Amino acid sequence: MANVLSLLGAFVATAVVLGLLGAGLVLPAVGASGQAAKQSVALFEGLPGELEVNPLNQQSRILATDGSVIATPYDENRIVVPLSKIAPIMQKAQVAIEDKRFYEHGGVDPQGLARALVSNTVSGSTQGASTLTQQYVKVVLQDAALKRGDKEAAASAVSRSGTEDTCASCSS
Hints:
Elements: H1 2-45, E1 62-63, E2 69-71, H2 88-98, H3 102-105, H4 110-122, H5 132-148, H6 151-157
Helix pairs in contact: 5-6
């Protein structure tokens, strides 16, 4: 009986030591997860409640008194046309340039996110995983910041960092 109690005591002591050791090994991962969640919440709370979309700058023209065009000065030289005036094949082509599988995955691309995560983990480079929706939001935020004259916020809206991957065309 004493032998059984001795073995039971050794088993309990070993279980306690291994439990503490296991908890000590898992604690950093739990802490890192909690910190990541905290930062994600702070990032989310920092986003604007409403995304204000300002009208796009369009082509400017300087006219003579007779109505003829003298010059077309521009920072941004665009002519906005309604979507109905753009051929459906061109609409699909423009989307396909950025993301050929957009209509398959909708707004979130799990395959692209996994590819970027693996690539960023394995190599020192930063792969983009942002969706067209994310790119659109970044460009709207950049445009709003530029209209306010805030070049730092405009650069931040489309910056590449470890937490917010973008593609090369997002800032163009």
